[in-house]
Design a protein that fits this description.
- With 279 residues, the chain is an all-alpha fold.
- It has one domain.
- Helix content is 69%, strand content 0%.
- It has helices spanning 3-25, 32-53, 61-68, 87-97, 103-114, 116-119, 122-154, 166-169, 176-204, 206-222, 241-244, 251-275.
- The radius of gyration is 20 Å and the shape is globular.
- The two termini are 35 Å apart.
- The model has no long low-confidence stretch (mean pLDDT 84).
Length: 279
């Protein structure tokens, strides 16, 4: 590795280490939000299941994952039923994105005055923010789902048995592979939304980016469309054969959409930063 390449890697690693300290450690109080939402979501989910299945029912971690991030069926005007937003799912996803909403932009304002004039390395700074966005959303999602499982365990509702009624509702067998598939698809979809939100904060500033993400979540709940990333964060959309017959939402489609989104956010973010007047 040449000295120039080492210097470039040093700048990138320095930025990311700084992001971990300033965006995660110093702002960890924000990461309590997905924890609180996870606890509330678990209690609401357990109450709903106890009403339908009885107080003696127990859940696997796959049931908890399926139930908390199930979402809803898209609106169908032919059914004559008013659209009811899935507030539980919206809250779970939205509050995984909140901790990373403000930090990249506020650090951008600081970096514009102190770092960019000296290093001229906006590109590496932006790449670090993209990586930090993914890392932040990952931490939020793990904290949230870990809290859901912990609360269910404290309530005596978590079991390691293989019986499960959420996947069974869709004619599926409960298995670790099924749970892993759902877990990674939800994680990747939320991470993609986090990247998009980070880009939007630099184009429109954080409040507008926040409203835009909420709009994307509502659109994903209202419509079934393989080009809406929020649809991939709903477990109920993966296995509903009546929906998949005309608008497939598959793991392969999500990977393609996520790759395209990552490339778009990364490249367009560089263009936006290069054109911004930060002084």
């Amino acid at each position: 590795m040449t000295s120039l390449a080492k210097k470039k890697n040093h700048f990138f690693l320095s930025y990311f280490q700084y992001d971990l300290k300033a965006g995660l450690i110093k702002r960890f109080s924000l990461y309590l939000l997905p924890i609180f939402v996870g606890a509330a979501a678990c209690l609401l989910l357990l109450e709903d299941i106890e009403i339908r299945e009885g107080k003696d029912c127990t859940l696997t971690w796959i049931d908890l994952l399926f139930g908390a991030y199930r979402g809803c069926d898209p609106y169908d005007p032919l059914k004559g039923v008013p659209f009811s937003p899935p507030f539980l799912w919206i809250s779970c996803v939205f509050f995984c994105l909140i901790p990373v909403l403000q930090y990249p932009y506020s650090d951008y304002v600081l970096s514009g005055k102190n770092i960019f004039p000296r290093t001229k390395s906006r590109k590496k700074w932006w790449f670090s923010k993209c990586l930090f966005s993914i890392f932040s959303v990952t931490v939020s999602f793990l904290l949230q789902f870990g809290t859901i499982c912990a609360v269910a365990g404290i309530r005596g509702k978590l079991t390691q048995n293989t019986s499960s009624f959420f996947p069974a509702h869709y004619g599926l067998q409960n298995s670790g592979a099924l749970g892993a598939k759902m877990f990674f698809e939800i994680w990747f979809a939320i991470a993609g939304l986090g990247l998009l939100q980070t880009l939007l904060t630099f184009i429109f500033k954080p409040p507008i980016a926040c409203l835009a993400v909420l709009t994307f979540l509502l659109a994903g709940a209202f419509f079934q469309n393989p080009f809406l990333l929020s649809c991939y964060a709903m477990t109920g959309r993966y296995f509903n054969s009546s929906l998949l017959a005309y608008q497939p939402v598959t793991a392969a489609g999500m990977v393609v959409l996520l790759v395209l989104l990552t490339v778009l956010v990364t490249l367009y973010g560089v263009i936006v930063l290069e054109r911004k007047d930060i002084l």
